[in-house]
Structures are given as C-alpha cells and as structure tokens.
Amino acid sequence: MSQTRSPREVFEALLERITTGRFTELGELYAEDAVVETVFEPVGGRRTHGRAALEERFAQVAAHSPLRLAAHNVVVRDTDDPQVVVAEWDYRVEHRESGRSFEAANIQVLRVCEGLIVHSRDYHDHLALAVAGGALPQLVAALGAE
Question: I want to staple 139 with a disulfide (CB 3.0 to 4.6 A). Which of 24, 92, 115, 130 is the partner?
Fold first, then answer.
C-alpha cells in the first residue's frame, strides 16, 4: 500500500515534472475537480476547472513550448492549514532555439487533499515567460484585441 503524498511532496513532484519536461504527467497530480487560478495571466482564462482541462493545457505546453525551465531558490512554506503549502522559486528560462535566457519568479499556493491538488493559485511572471518564449508579439496583439 502506497503512502499518500504530503502537500510539500506533491509540490516537489510537480516542480520535478515541469523542470524535466514531463508535462503530460502533471495531470495525475490533480484531483478530478481541481481548480487552478493563474492570477496574473495577461490574456485568456485565469481559471481552469477539472483534471481533463488541465491535461489538455499541459499537452499543449508539451507540444509547443520552446522553453527549458530550471528551478532554483526554491522555498516551500508550511502553513497553519495542514493541506496548504506556499512555494516560492525562480526559473532559469532558456529558449531551446534562440539560446536566450531569462529569470522568472513564481509563487504557488497549493491545497492538497489525499495526495492530490484540489486548488492552486499560481503567480508566475508571464511577461518574462512570453519574452523568453518569443511570444511577446502575440501577447501584445492579444492584449490589443481585448
């Protein structure tokens, strides 16, 4: 019988899969009815409901992202709620094709129940990620269309 992962262990598994490019494996860390809020997402939906929608989003990233992410300065803080952790870290972001690199700051507040993420509030530096991924023109166009 396997032991249920703690919120800290779930975050560590999430970050490890992201930094090793295993995006298609991320869905298994989320509850069927999970909610993910990307608070500073500049365009598009800022709230994703359900594992299936998250898996679709992760598959798109796996298929199209030119970025390599390496995490450093990782700090995971326990809270007074045993289901909640707050994680802070920086990504060293490298564009695989251009070789350009950037730093991008991140914070996630994860609620984990029975070893699965049920709610996440994600605060990522989307501007730095758009610049690193060569998607700044598309971001500007999308912002102008709103």
Answer: 130
CB 50 within 8 A of CB 33: yes
SS (H, E, C) 14-53: HHHHHHCCCHHHHHHHEEEEEEEEECCCCCCCCEEECHHH
Residue 61, beta-bridge partner list = none
Domains of the chain in sequence order: 7-145 (3.10.450.50)
> What is the per-residue pLDDT across 77-113, written as a single tens digit (0 to 9) for each?
999 999 999 999 999 988 888 888 888 899 999 999 9
Host H or E run for residue 111 = strand 101-113
Give the Cα-Cα-Cα angle 19, 109, 116 (nearest 5 degrees): 70
For residue 72, is pLDDT > 80? yes
